[in-house]
Amino acid sequence: MRAVVLDGPGPVEQLRLTRLPLPEPPPGWVRIKVEAFGLNRSELHTRLGLAQGVTFPRVPGIEATGTVDADPDGVLRPGQQVATLMGGMGRTFDGGYAEYTVVPRAQVVPFRSELPWEVLGAVPETLQTAYGSLTVGLDLRAGQSLLIRGGTSALGLVAATLAKDLGATVLATTRAAGRVRALADHGVDHPVLDDGEVAARVRAILPGGVDAALELVGTPTLPDTLAATRVHGTVCFTGMLSNRWTVPDFYPIDYLPRGVRLTAYSGGAADLPARVLQRHLDRIASGELTPGPTHVYPLDAIRAAHEDLEHGRRIGKLVVRTG
């Protein structure tokens, strides 16, 4: 099979397209014929040497979408459409940047859809993270207001879609003036141009502050995001677009505004129920929901895709088609 191998941390040249033997699934594992996979910041962190617990050489990729190719236990039928994500993919065992991947059956999510593979490949990890952030991380309710810090990221756009569908008022930020219109076109109620400090702009729209905020940029903007949130409101730390996720010399009383709650979210396949994935795909197919912008690359263009990911050249999700 063709696969992308990362020999060690470094520039995009460390990503090497090569041929590997077809992997055999042991009991309890499933081999998936990968049709498409999305790119994620986690894989960029792995390539840049910022991720912990990764062994090399490694086939990266924390998600993949395709069909069951082999299940030694006969639980999943060959040809069944499935998604898989997280659980050590691309870190402790080989991940989705390949024509085939072998993963534990417990992290396989079945679905049925006639959507194109490039659309299906954009959904699993981003949906899981957005859904978990809004439900577990924020407990967002209809009628509440939500600030998304990092709104033109793939995760930010999906979070906006889910929040609007829930009945929330959505504010979302972008650092590029040329992308403000894209946020409005996506259904964001209040696009906000981000110059590093948006709390005053948010409070000009909602003087008391937002009910909830989703931090996708990282620790550099977290204090300002907290300042944009009302007393008894909640900020969920989920993303690290800045590649910075630690707070030096954290002193809670000085760092946290009085009465503002700070939570965090990370999850895996178990946090994406099959019914949630299926309903989301069905609603995209019916036109009720938009998947947002998707940019598709062939497998042999993985370096170009990673460069676009690293430098933020695209709005929305980057997807690689293996076929």
UniProtKB/TrEMBL annotation:
Q: Which SUPFAM superfamilies match?
A: GroES-like (SSF50129), NAD(P)-binding Rossmann-fold domains (SSF51735)
- GO MF annotation, one: oxidoreductase activity, acting on NAD(P)H
What SMART domains does its record include? PKS_ER (SM00829)
Do the record's keywords include GTP-binding? Answer: no
Which keywords fit this entry according to its UniProt record? NADP, Oxidoreductase
One matching Pfam family is ADH_N
Does the keyword field hold Ligase?
no
Task: Name the domain of life this protein comes from.
Answer: Bacteria
Start and end residues of each Enoyl reductase (ER) domain? 10-320
The name of this protein is NADPH:quinone reductase
